[in-house]
Known about the structure:
- By secondary structure, this protein is α/β, with parallel strands linked by helices.
- It has 20 helices and 19 strands.
- Strands 1, 2, 3, 4, 5, 6, 7, 12, 13, 17, 18 and 19 form a twelve-stranded mixed β-sheet that branches. Strands 15-14-16 form a three-stranded antiparallel β-sheet, with no helix packed on it. A two-stranded antiparallel ribbon has the order 8-11.
Amino acid sequence: xxxxxxxxxxxxxxxxxxxxxxxxxxxxxxxxxxxxxxxxxxxxxxxxxxxxxxxxxxxxxxxxxxxxxxxxxxxxxxxxxxxxxxxxxxxxxxxxxxxxxxxxxxxxxxxxxxxxxxxxxxxxxxxxxxxxxxxxxxxxxxxxxxxxxxxxxxxxxxxxxxxxxxxxxxxxxxxxxxxxxxxxxxxxxxxxxxxxxxxxxxxxxxxxxxxxxxxxxxxxxxxxxxxxxxxxxxxxxxxxxxxxxxxxxxxxxxxxxxxxxxxxxxxxxxxxxxxxxxxxxxxxxxxxxxxxxxxxxxxxxxxxxxxxxxxxxxxxxxxxxxxxxxxxxxxxxxxxxxxxxxxxxxxxxxxxxxxxxxxxxxxxxxxxxxxxxxxxxxxxxxxxxxxxxxxxxxxxxxxxxxxxxxxxxxxxxxxxxxxxxxxxxxxxxxxxxxxxxxxxxxxxxxxxxxxxxxxxxxxxxxxxxxxxxxxxxxxxxxxxxxxxxxxxxxxxxxxxxxxxxxxxxxxxxxxxxxxxxxxxxxxxxxxxxxxxxxxxxxxxxxxxxxxxxxxxxxxxxxxxxxxxxxxxxxxxxxxxxxxxxxxxxxxxxxxxxxxxxxxxxxxxxxxxxxxxxxxxxxxxxxxxxxxxxxx
Length: 631
């Protein structure tokens, strides 16, 4: 019997499938730029949807075709185009077309996640950028009780086999937009003929310009509040600067990550029914669904795995997940700690030599200044930089940081990522709106002297394609009203940390709402994490999650990968390439293993700490470096 066949799923889940709402379709798409829209509808059941989690669309469904030099996976850029150092251009920088924005969004999201550099092995040792023709279906969905919508998007390849129905549902990493998992779920699922469903999980790059009242439409172009925007902040009248969903939706989206993932899967079933009406119905009972994500996306699919209602997921693969469980540490806790202490701790000789960049000779004076500031604030001990650094290092080690995580964390220090995360998540957990940022933080276009200014039309036009969903970046910076020399950002960071240590009720309620539970009994789950991860250390996240899940009797397998840090996208830097291995090959391998398990009952991976080997300076990546296990 075909292991993907509707009859197999029907036998396994007899009586569990509910009817899908069939979207009406009219007209024929003749070109890649043609758009066919279908009306939004009231909450309806799709597949095995439960009444508690209906799929409600708050926009029309936009359908586009992508073939030839504008395919699903790379928008026709291919690996060589994705490697280009300059992004795809706009004919009119102040008013790019939807097609131009999509191509640029794919370019930026690929480069933000995958190591595409020559010698890095992508497309040779692992991964694919093959041209995949097909259709895209996109819409705004809304969770019950949510203030703001989130994006859902489904890519249906022309090679989709209605007799072997498969959907890969992928949640964006970080706070990225809806294409944020293209190099994760799309790169694995599309070449195999699976439909791939994406969600921005309530975050994304749908920035809103408070000064001009302009935001982002469904197709990525800029419009007014009357144009059906992706995000219009509440209470924004009279406010200045820039608002974005993760920080200013008032929804604390992280608390609902699992439901965002489920809605993306539900939208996939509706889209498949629209794409192949002759093969309807498409339900969770007759369509295989595998969820995958990395970083925040990994945390999102683990939250989706908790669903104890009618089964809808067949397997889950989570890479380097940001997941919060009892016995671990919350992201906000260790992020605010790192923002304060890590710059000073990095001067400790136990961590030398640090990855380059940052260049220690340039960073050391700033880090020494932080040591002196921490001493004055009573946060470290010692009368000189060396002893103060030793104190900061000892404090972090006592809190569970490994040397490997601290060493790799230098990247987040160098790019001011700890502060960016802390500012955004404080606003999200506290459910603050635009202009209400805790500790006096806000977001705006920034002058060279760090004062806010109005954004230009050219800057606004590129936000959706270029933004990572969490400033600074894409012309948007952090406004810190507490800045004070000599250590300018320290007062704001101390305030953010105090929200945790002083038990701010709103912050702690927001964090508590993100706590994960064990996955559904019987659901295959594979967790993959790099042991050198300096942004989401496994000791705070995946390790306690796996322990919690196994204590509850759940079938969770765990691959621990030495010499792998959090950001594959930085492995194009020579020193990072020499030291670290990419994590994506292990995520793809885990997906292969769960697919084989679902197809033929092949064994799931066994728990393992892999025997990896860094490739060293000047050497291309080879399969022997990765040491991907076969059992």
